[in-house]
Amino acid sequence: MILCSNRQWQHLCVVILLSFSAVKCEVIDNEIHKLAYIDDECELPDKLRKEIHSYQPIVNKIADEVLNGRFAGDTYNTLSEFIDTFGPRYSGTKSLENAIDFMNEKLKEVGLENVHTENATIPNWQRGFESAQLVQPHPQNLPMLGIGPSPATPAGGIVADVVVVESFDELNSLSDDAVRGKIVVFVPVWVSYEVTVEYRVFGASRAARKGAAAALIRSIAPFSIGSPHAGWQLYEDDVVQIPAACITVEDAEMLKRIYRRGVPITIRLEMNAKSFEPFVSRNTVGELQGHTYPVDKKVVVLCGHLDSWDVGVGAMDDGGGAFISWKAVEYLKKLNLRPARTIRAILWTGEEPAVAGAGEYQRGHAATEKEEFNFFIESDIGTFEPLGLDFAGNSDAECVIKEILKLMTPLNATSFATPMQGGPDIDLWTSRGFPGASLLNKNDKYFWFHHTYGDSMLIENSEYLDKAAALFAASAYIIADLSIDMPRDLQ
Ligand SMILES: *[C@@H]1O[C@H](CO)[C@@H](O)[C@H](O)[C@H]1NC(C)=O
Ligand SMILES: *[C@@H]1O[C@H](CO)[C@@H](O)[C@H](O)[C@H]1NC(C)=O
Ligand SMILES: [Zn+2]
Description:
The chain has two domains: 7-124 and 277-481, Aminopeptidase (3-Layer(aba) Sandwich); 128-272, 3-Layer(bba) Sandwich (Glucose Oxidase, domain 1), CATH 3.50.30. Helix content is 35%, strand content 22%. The protein has 17 helices and 17 strands. A nine-stranded mixed β-sheet has the order 1-16-15-17-14-12-13-11-2, sandwiched between helices. It has an eight-stranded mixed β-sheet with strand order 4-3-10-6-7-8-9-5. Strand 12 (299-305), helix 11 (315-334) and strand 13 form a beta-alpha-beta unit. Helix 3 (56-68) runs antiparallel to helix 17 (462-481) and helix 4 crosses helix 17 (462-481). The structure holds 2-acetamido-2-deoxy-beta-D-glucopyranose (NAG) (2 copies) and zinc ion (ZN).
């Protein structure tokens, strides 16, 4: 299906959907995401192929040191200490700013170069007290999480009758009179995150157009043990901003069954959420500077985001991704592997509220971006068992990346997939033709935990983090050191 066919919405769509991990504004269909083992379709010049293969001993050395040598277990240990020290790192909180201060010192301490922060103004939406209860046909608490940036309910909450719909089409088939003043509960069939998330993103706006008092949305997840999943949404410009929250998959399905039997449902919803003045936070930067090219040109970026949701501790989203990114740079430095071009670790702030941190960085660097950046690598779709890289870029760059992945046998991570999923921050560049990649990993359970209290260190695995950090280090080193710039077609 086409998510963002209307040009007028494309920009907003890109911005808002990016923050939901990995959605590109194009034909969205999981079938087109090919997971292909290396094939031989590419005709790279023999000289370049030989040059790429000359890096095999360096890949072997990185793999050996990170998997079995002095760095084995280090990424997990450092990440778990960080997570246990700072807990949730939610936008607008002191914990996030403390975590950023800590990382700024840490990157200096381990020897990264040009360590600094760059200001970024991010939304500051705080949920406050919130609750939902089924009133009719029987009393039952409904665990819920407000969706940013939802407004509060009127003081004392809303008590209203419920309309359950499975789709926007079903909502639109109802008269406005049937919806006015009601709580609309969206219970879409789970297809995939990319497809089903539109109910969280647009549900409140569509319900508001019909005069609804509030919207509740089935959490955007394929599997549940009673957890609501948080998230961000978009209020369309010309609608009343009604309160909106996610409820559990279990409760949403229950409400749908009751409603289909024709039994009246009443829900009480109370939310005290509030949007405060936008908050000045910081993106954190540290480098391994190139030995040949100007240090601020043709940079290879490795990145993940430091901020998390206020529920869970963001070990998966995106502690693991942020840590493999900067650890990769630390390991290269400590192995004295300095490439021709600069490798820059960026730890984004404010990704969860609509990719705000990376958005400000992109705008701040827009004037120089063509010369400044050569390649972007991000991890924000899990650090489960690494499989390889998920690529965005033209067919020439694709062939270079496929050839580089052939060297990753010591990491058992030689798979190539495209188009890229899971690069919400770097999509600000890759959607315009800059080449990039995200960590391809065995993340079929990612959306079980995403934006819930279940996002904890229990999901992370020391061996997989080592392999992922080694894959990022080896890939970034080769790309940053090759005699050619990464091919691209900028738009
Ligand atoms: C960054 O933000 C802080 C706090 O608002 C401000 O004091 C500082 O001047 C800003 N730095 C830059 C370079 O804009
Ligand atoms: C290599 O990766 C494949 C695909 O995930 C997996 O089935 C296999 O067990 C892995 N082998 C090793 C030695 O880790
Ligand atoms: Zn994330």
